[in-house]
Design goal:
The structure holds two protein chains of two kinds.
Chain A lengths: L4 H8 L16 H5 L6 H18 L23 H11 L7 H10 L9 H10 L4 H4 L4 H10 L4 H5 L11 H4 L2 H14 L1 H11 L5 H13 L6 H5 L8 H12 L5 H13 E4 L6 E4 L24 H10 L4 H8 L3 H7 L6 H14 L3 H12 L11 H11 L2 H13 L9 H8 L6 H16 L8 H10 L5 H10 L5 H21 L3
Antiparallel strand pairs in A: 1-2
Helix pairs in contact in A: 4-28, 11-12, 11-13, 13-15, 17-20, 21-22, 21-23, 23-24, 26-28, 27-28
Chain B lengths: L6 H7 L3 H9 L6 E6 L3 E6 L7 E6 L4 E4 L9 H12 L11 H28 L2 H35 L10 H12 L3 H14 L5 H20 L6 H11 L5 H6 L2 E16 L2 E10 L5 E9 L13 E8 L8 E3 L4 E2 L12 H14 L6 E11 L6 E5 L4 E3 L4 H11 L4 E7 L4 E8 L2 E4 L8
Antiparallel strand pairs in B: 1-2, 2-3, 3-4, 5-6, 5-8, 6-7, 8-9, 8-10, 11-12, 11-14, 12-13, 14-15, 15-16
Helix pairs in contact in B: 2-3, 5-6, 5-8, 6-7, 7-8, 8-9
Classes of the chains: A mainly alpha, B alpha+beta.
Chain lengths: 511, 451
């Protein structure tokens, strides 16, 4: 590269100067000739000034590539300015727990985000995959255009409900996340062929990927998956994969594994005694049958657990509650009441808890949840009560879930303990019916105002504000405003409700 | 009757993000023991942590506020909350009779304004008065001597640097600049100190830094040479050079000059923090005169106050320009009022016209480094290099200098189509400041300190 002589002079200094540099441009020749190089430092600095002014004054426009890739016309109307303002505040970090609600409201009205808010929203969705499905209906043509052409934002579109962006070879060449997305979509489209593809690839997959893909299968296993589940998955080297396979097979009663588990349960458990003495009794296996290994049954118990109890628990945990009901021809409550044998009660209960956690059955979930909430003693080594009950609530409708929640409130002092109600309230997701919402508000206010529950903080207030039905907002605000003094969390609740109220008003009251 | 503030305006008034949030929270009537307002004033009693409620007052004309709370922020959250109520629920301002504490404040304000006006008039008149002349000349002379010393010192320093060459001087280190910058500040040549800082930034600026450093040091040398022979220059040029070196002109002297009345469009506003100061730079363009004006406002970061008018706003008022060559820096002669005439599209400049205009300014003022403009342009790529450019309607392209986020925002708002923008031409690249999105003006620069 030929360096500009003036440039070289500036870098090396006039102390090391050769002949004076020539004028960089003919237009400067006259002025350049007047530089007095007998004082070389001053002349060099003046030359720099001259060259700079000349270059800036002589700047020329460039040629540009023709315009292409223009954003298409919008087909959706933009949301109202008031709604855009609320969104902008949330994207700046203020009360962004209501972001999903905003997106839902806009989508329901077939409105799109204002153009200026697209970058912040896309940036957010790029780092928060859970938002992607919710933003895709409100992006508008501009948002899709922008996401496609900006590195890192394209994948935001892939999370959209349509999944149209996933190409056919996503399975062959895609990233692990894309393969998971592809499998989920393909299973919905054609479960049989998806099962074939997965089974074919199974041997080549790394352990972690086997686990991720089998988790997709376990969400809703079909008859096409049974072969893989009963075969390689149940014998997998990876413990998590084996557990997923067992959980999936719990939902496929026609599988040979399910039949074996049922047979094992029926062989081990019987009814003994008469009238009030009737109870379930367990005869756990005396020895470990090596054939069980291929069913994913572990031989070695964890420390502190007897091997026979361990084997029994694993088999019982592979049998859904419904199979017990058929076997003993009783209802849920009766069955649960029959488990009162001093020696084996706990092992049977552990089996039920394991099965419920792996694959809760909607029709029995409420009664089972009510039962475990009232348990005097939570068995050692069982899944955590909160985790289990939350899992059961997932499969229940709002009314039934609300009844469980109410029971958790009444059951204070049980294994559930004091904070159990609040934990359930804040971590479950079902929509609170009006009566239950009222109760939740009472309980929280009581805890905040008079009997501070140490774990109940302002973030809980924000969660509660999300759960309360909006119809009750006015009433709630009135009640809060009437209180003589508000604790921190109560104040937070009030502000969060006010914000949510404003958010809805921005959509409903704008012209 | 003054108009009620809009949420945008209130947002612009907030000194920082925390105050804005607290202000919004206070924008609920239930937090107030009393709320009132009339055509000119808003007032309210806010229940704070103290025993007595705070007395909050807002004058709608100039958005001046007064509150009895101990906050050092200005305006405080109570004043902001009161404005938010006025903006969203004016019916809540039920009380119509001004309480005594409001009347007192208004009376005091009127009195102070009157006095300030008198003082300004006296000062303006006094600047020419012979009584002060001797003392003033003496002060000027003393200061002049110190500046002269600084100029000589810097001239020597520059010559040294030119002799040794930039390559060996370690200019990318702060240490190379610290001493000389400090001595310029001591010599009261703040303009020179500022230019040294630009040069130091250029020396650390990565790719192409040598050319930028040459440009900065060349301009600095030119300024020193011109200053040395300022006595022989035209008065306007002399004033320009003196201000560039760091002589400050008293505001009242600027205000005493001739004003230019116009309908001024707020084209752009940038709020930044520099050395514990919050700086607001507002660019205005006269609708009738076509003149560009720059309003600078500085306030201490502990008590920040920023210019209140958001981009896109039109203001009617009279500006007094700082004297100099092709002056742009100005002061309001009186508080401007929002324009009531119907809004019209801004007049845009072709790139060729912008380049010509800037070249003409450089010919008479080679220290001017930036030219503001309204342009109608789209995002594009340069033909050979593929570098980011803006392309005007005639197809001419100029390099675009915009951080990633700004570029994304521009793309989102324009969709690659032509749009109206306010830009700064630096002689090398266009820096976008504002983009017009239908009726909304979207700022591309920071609008609030600390956000």
């Amino acid at each position: 590269m030929n360096r500009d002589p003036l440039h070289v002079l500036a870098l090396l200094g006039t102390a090391r100067m050769g002949p004076p540099p020539p004028a960089p441009h003919p237009a400067l020749a006259e002025a350049w000739a007047r530089l007095d190089w007998s004082a070389p430092e001053r002349a060099a600095l003046a030359a720099m000034a001259l060259a700079t002014a000349a270059r800036q004054a002589g700047a020329l426009a460039l040629a540009a590539e023709p315009a292409e890739d223009l954003a298409p016309e919008e087909t959706l109307p933009a949301c109202a300015p008031a709604a855009a303002q609320v969104l902008r505040r949330m994207l700046a970090g203020e009360r962004d727990e209501f972001l999903p609600e905003w997106l839902e409201l806009a989508a329901a009205r077939s409105q799109r985000v204002a153009h200026r808010d697209l970058p912040a929203l896309l940036r957010r969705a790029a780092s928060e995959p859970a938002l992607r499905a919710a933003i895709s209906p409100v992006l508008g043509a501009r948002g899709v255009w922008l996401a496609r052409r900006t590195p890192g934002w394209g994948e935001v579109l892939e999370g959209g409900g349509s999944g149209a962006e996933l190409t056919a070879d996503a399975w062959e060449t895609g990233s692990p996340a894309e393969r998971v997305a592809w499998l989920r979509r393909e299973r919905a489209r054609d479960a049989a062929s998806a099962a074939v593809v997965l089974a074919k690839a199974w041997k080549e997959l790394a352990g972690e990927e086997r686990e991720r893909l089998l988790a997709v299968v376990a969400e809703a296993p079909t008859e096409h998956d049974v072969a893989l589940l009963e075969g390689e998955a149940l014998r997998d080297r990876r413990r998590e994969v084996r557990a997923l396979a067992r959980a999936a097979l719990l939902r496929r009663p026609e599988s040979a594994f399910a039949a074996r588990a049922r047979a094992r349960m029926e062989a081990m458990v019987g009814l003994e005694g008469l009238l009030l003495g009737r109870r379930l009794v367990l005869r756990p296996p005396e020895t470990f049958d090596p054939a069980w290994k291929s069913d994913g049954i572990e031989e070695k118990p964890p420390a502190g657990v007897g091997p026979r109890a361990h084997w029994a628990r694993q088999w019982l945990g592979a049998v859904p509650l419904s199979a017990w009901l058929r076997r003993f021809e009783v209802g849920v409550e009766k069955l649960l009441a029959l488990n009162r044998d001093e020696e084996w009660r706990e092992v049977i209960l552990l089996g039920w808890l394991d099965a419920a956690l792996a694959a809760p059955e909607r029709e029995h979930a409420e009664l089972f949840a009510l039962h475990v909430i009232k348990l005097e003693k939570w068995p050692k080594g069982a899944p955590a009560p909160l985790e289990l009950v939350l899992r059961l609530l997932e499969v229940l409708d709002a009314e039934a879930a609300a009844r469980v929640l109410a029971a958790a409130d009444a059951g204070a002092g049980k294994p559930a303990e004091n904070g159990f109600y609040f934990e359930l309230l804040f971590r479950s997701r079902f929509e609170l019916p009006a009566r239950e919402a009222q109760l939740a508000l009472e309980r929280c206010l009581e805890a905040w105002q008079t009997r501070p529950y140490p774990q109940l903080q302002s973030n809980h207030a924000r969660l509660l504000a999300r759960r309360l039905p909006l119809a009750a907002a006015d009433e709630t605000l009135r009640r809060l405003a009437a209180l003589p003094e508000l604790s921190g969390p109560a104040e937070e609740l009030l502000r969060a409700i006010e914000f949510r109220h404003k958010l809805h008003l921005a959509f409903t009251s704008s012209p | 009757m003054a108009s009620l503030p809009t949420p945008d305006q209130i947002t612009a008034l907030a000194p920082d993000a925390a105050s804005l949030k607290a202000g919004r929270d206070l924008g609920a009537p239930r937090k107030w023991a009393l709320l009132g307002g009339d055509g000119e004033t808003l007032w309210g009693l806010a229940q704070g942590s103290g025993k007595e409620p705070y007395q909050t007052r807002v004058a709608l004309g100039d958005m001046a506020t007064k509150c009895s709370c101990p906050s050092r922020k200005f305006p405080c959250k109570h004043a902001l909350g009161l404005m938010f109520i006025a903006a969203s629920q004016p019916d809540a301002l039920a009380e119509k009779a001004r309480p005594a504490w409001v009347e007192e404040w208004l009376a005091g304000r009127a009195e102070r304004q009157e006095k300030a006006k008198e003082r300004a008039e006296q000062k303006a008149a006094g600047a020419a008065a012979p009584v002060d002349e001797a003392a003033r000349a003496k002060r000027q002379e003393k200061r002049g001597a110190r500046v002269d010393e600084g100029v000589a010192l810097l001239g020597q320093w520059l010559a040294d640097l030119a002799r040794r060459g930039f390559a060996d001087a370690g200019l990318e280190n702060h240490a190379a600049w610290d001493d000389i910058s400090r001595r310029m500040v001591d010599a009261q040549a703040t303009g020179l100190a500022r230019r040294l800082r630009y040069a130091a930034e250029a020396a650390r600026s990565g790719e192409g830094r040598e050319a930028r450093l040459m440009a900065e040091l060349g301009r600095l040398h030119l300024l020193l040479s011109a200053y040395a022979r300022r006595e022989s220059l035209a008065p306007e040029l002399r004033t320009e050079i003196e201000q560039q070196v760091g002589w400050t002109l008293p505001q009242e002297q600027v205000l005493a000059g001739e004003g230019l009345r116009d309908e001024w469009r707020v084209a752009a506003r940038t709020v930044s923090e520099d050395d514990r100061l919050v700086l607001t730079e507002t660019w205005l363009r006269g609708g009738a005169s076509g003149r560009w004006a720059q309003i600078l406002r500085a306030s201490p970061a502990v008590q920040p106050a920023v210019d209140t008018w958001p981009p896109g706003k039109r203001l009617v008022g009279e500006l007094a320009f700082y004297p100099g060559v092709e002056p742009v820096r100005a002061l309001w002669k009186s508080e401007p009022q929002a324009a009531s005439s119907p809004d019209t599209a801004v007049e845009c400049e072709a790139f060729s016209a912008l380049l010509d205009r800037h070249a003409a300014v450089l010919a008479s003022n080679p220290w001017r480094s930036r030219a503001p403009a309204f342009v109608r342009a789209r995002l594009g790529c340069a033909a050979r290099s593929g570098a980011a450019v803006l392309v005007d309607e005639a197809g001419a392209a100029l390099p675009l200098r915009a951080a990633q986020e700004k570029h994304e925002l521009l793309a989102a708002v324009t969709g690659g189509h032509l749009a109206t923008l306010c830009v700064l031409w630096t002689g090398e690249a266009l820096e976008p400041l504002t983009v017009v999105d239908g009726a909304a003006w979207v700022p591309l620069t920071s609008q609030t300190f600390g956000r």
